[in-house]
Amino acid sequence: MVEHFSDVMIRARGLRKSFGDLEAVKGIDIEVHKGEAFGFLGPNGAGKSSTMRMIAAVSPASGGELSILGMDPAKDGPAIRARLGVCPQEDTLDVELNVFDNLYIYGRYFGIPRAEVRARAEELLAFVQLTEKRTAKVEDLSGGMKRRLTIARSLINRPDVLLLDEPTTGLDPQARHLLWDRLFRLKQQGVTLVITTHYMDEAEQLADRLVVMDKGVIAAEGSPLELIRQYSTREVAELRFPVGDHDATAEKIADLGERVEVLPDRILVYSDDGEHVLEEVHGRGLRPLATLVRRSTLEDVFLRLTGRTLVD
Amino acid sequence: MSATTTPRPVSIRSPLRPFEGSGLIVLRNYVTYKSQWKLFATGFLEPVFYLFSIGIGVGKLIHVFEFNGHAIPYAEFVAPGMLAASAFNGALLDSTFNVFFKLKYEKLYDQLLVTPLTTSDVARGEIIWGQLRGGSYSLAFLVVMWALGLVHSWWAVLAFPAALLIGFAFSAVCMSLTTFMTSWQDFDKITMVQLPLFLFSGTFFPITAFHGVLRWVIEVTPLYRGVVLCRELTTGVITWESGFSLVYLVAMGVLGLVVVRRRLDALLLT
Predict the structure, then answer these.
(1) What is the ipTM of this complex?
(2) pLDDT greater than 90 at residue A158
């Protein structure tokens, strides 16, 4: 397979990060291509944020290779950072500056000329719907507004790669959807997105390709659909029986799906045909209190790969 | 995909010119201060109050005062001490409390370091800013001294850069100490050093009041070096002591700056 050099925005080989005795990232290989939305999915402590900080060229790698935009972060940190947009997990806005100055001063850090930064700041305020708040203090903004301002700020240098660390954590549904919409538009403009999240719906919405990280290693890699196909079945039948009956019932229907999972409140049967599972259940004389047939989601993949499963 | 597809690293320069980054941090601090100019004004008044109360008030009780073999009024002795002490106090405040707040609470430096700015830019920018602020106080104070007739030599013009040097030396060292602090309680230690330095560095009375080891100790404390430098310049009685002070303070500042940058690397680029 032949690849164009310029197409690879981020490449890591055996990338490691340790903090004293703790090994947060234990040798991962990744490759992010131009214009792609790449996701890091994983529970807290999986090593996502540590990886992001290394990609942002602020945290030196403890081992392995890392190349960002064809450059070495250990040598060309400032030049790499000049072309990245970083939206950190916490909103670290400059609380001593007002909304507009947060964009203006931040833009100046990139060496962008005054008039140009002013124009871009106005443009970005409109893009994230904060024009009316331009002279407001940062502390007077709502959580969603702060997040939008952080995103606007990360775009001031027109980055080639935008790094988003849990971009919608703590936001209400309206704010999340507005943000997703903005990120989708950026992607259409050709900006490469790298996103970490522990929200499955976010990963499915935004990522073309993702890796599932767990305990510092990559547990799986692929598009959301590929991952679902590989690690789950097309459908899931959820069956609810009276409390206490679940273990006994699960044995009786274990052969109905590729996999059966017993939860405290319901049994999950993983199968390509959920309706058929229900018919069989009824055919065996079992009477669930409630049933639901749904498509498999990334959440099923995630839970299978990172815990709470019968398969160890 | 094979190992040969690894892109060849090309070294590309930062978009910022050398020292432009430090200048941008100064710009950022200037914008935040525009709305707080009253806070700015109070810093100037402190040494002036000392000068009036002790230099002129207490000075009335002292008729003739000898300094380096010259008889001078007491106020002329105290004023340069206040000039040095205000540069010291200003630098201390800026590089301890303010830097600690930005470092630990505001997480300002974390924000700056994801841009092309570096830890050197942060260290230099913060220290330059401190000197701009402190320097404007020193300049104003020198003008007050001149207006009160406490200056008799053209050497006094050099007391302004001397005050900047004192500020630089203390800013750099105090900022490096701040990077080791973990909570606000640690600042008690700073106050414990600040007050004796302020009172016993030959600021209000001559060092000849001390004898033996104690005198030797005071002679090598940094504020004393600063006070001597300012006093020799404003009175025009220059000795080799000023030369020693100059070298001492430059070395102290440079050392502090190196430690600050290393500590910021260790704290922020993890």
Answers:
(1) 0.83
(2) yes
Asked whether the predicted pLDDT for residue A58 surpasses 60, the reply is yes
Chain A: residues touching B (Cβ < 8 Å): 1, 3, 5-6, 8, 11, 13, 19, 31, 56, 58-60, 65, 67, 70-72, 75-79, 81-82, 84, 86, 88, 90, 92-97, 101, 105-106, 108-111, 157
Residues in Cβ contact with A256 at an 8 Å cutoff, skipping those fewer than 6 apart: A269, A271, A277, A280, A281
Instruction: Give the pLDDT score at B12.
Output: 64
Q: What is the mean pLDDT of chain B?
A: 87
Domains annotated for chain A, with CATH where assigned, are: 5-222 (3.40.50.300), 233-295 (3.30.70.980)
**Per-residue confidence at B124, pLDDT binned at 50, 70, 90?**
very high
Phi and psi, residue B65, nearest 5°: -135, 135
Look at residue B9 and tell me if it is in a domain. no
In a domain, B37, yes or no: yes
* Residue B193: inside a domain: yes
- List Cα–Cα distances, A251 to A81, A245, A257, A260, B202, in angstroms: 56, 10, 12, 9, 90
Q: Is residue B4 part of a domain?
A: no
Choose the mutation target among B1, B26, B30, B114 for the interface with A, i.e. most A CBs under 10 Å. Answer: B114
How many domains, chain B? 1
> For A253, which DSSP code?
T
